[in-house]
Amino acid sequence: MTPNDDTDSVAPPNDPLLDTAHSECKTTSTYDINHYFEQEKDKLSVCRVCFNLHNKHPVEYMKQKKHAITYSSNTMTGILHGHIGRWHLLDFIDLVMEPGRAWPIQVSPVKEVLVLGYMLEELKAFLEKGVDLRSLPPQAIGDLSLEPTGDRVNVPPFSLPICHKFLINFIITDDQSLNIIKCKEFHCLLLLLREDLKDSDIPHHMRIWSNIIQAWKDYFTILKIDLAVHIS
């Protein structure tokens, strides 16, 4: 099986991200695409991992069921991201976690689950247990604390849901009063730390109260998933 008529084998460079001969558009938003797919102008895009597995370990390849490993040259990145998410998700997470590999995470369901408050290490552990990431509920408040390591290795990408969850975690862990949300100085501190944050993005104290109640419900849902995994 060959990806095109004039190529007998795929011989990717040591790091495809450093190879500029095969792609006309290598931006930070397509680092993952460039790593997994051999792309040349007017030729099929070939998944390196699947192609090498098919050639070197055909029995193992057939166990994964036959699936597309070549795509047209004008295939949208969303479809290629879908291939990575379906067939190489655990490998993708391992790569993203490597030091110095600052890839924007655009592969589903990883990007959606990170917004729920999970860390990459947790997602890897769930995948290794056979848990479908799409079944995960929002992260329990008690699991959102970070160790003061002095760097940002474990800090998730900023989003309003993540900001709200860490705010709730701060209130619960430090036994803060909900009235701190009403404090103008506290609002100013948050706005200072994130220049694109608006005052309207900071939740009302009643919203925080409601989220704390929901956090306890989410905790028991996650506990149920963990127990089911251990029992099985």
Task: Characterise the protein shown here.
This protein is mainly alpha-helical. Helix content is 46%, strand content 3%. The chain has 10 helices and 3 strands; from the N terminus they run αββααβααααααα. The protein has a 3-stranded antiparallel β-sheet. The chain is elongated. 18% of the residues are buried.
Describe what is shown at a glance.
The chain is mainly alpha-helical and 232 residues long.
Task: Please supply descriptive tags for the structure shown above.
disordered N terminus; 3 strands; 232 residues; 46% helix; mainly alpha
Strand portion, in percent? Answer: under 5%
Helix-and-strand structural type: mainly alpha
Distance between the termini: 39 Å
Low-confidence stretches: 1-27
Give a count of the beta strands, DSSP E runs of length 2 or more.
Answer: 3
Helix content: 40-55%
Numbering strands along the chain, what is their spatial order in the largest sheet? 1-2-3
Q: State the shape.
A: elongated
Q: Would you tell me the overall average pLDDT? A: 75
Order of helical and strand elements? HEEHHEHHHHHHH
Q: What's the main sheet like?
A: 3 strands, antiparallel
Helices, by number, come to 10
- Rounded to an integer in angstroms, the radius of gyration calculated over CA atoms is 22 Å
List the helices and strands and how they pair.
Elements: H1 31-36, E1 37-38, E2 45-47, H2 48-56, H3 58-63, E3 70-71, H4 77-87, H5 89-96, H6 110-115, H7 120-128, H8 160-173, H9 184-193, H10 205-231
Antiparallel strand pairs: 1-2, 2-3
Helix pairs in contact: 5-7
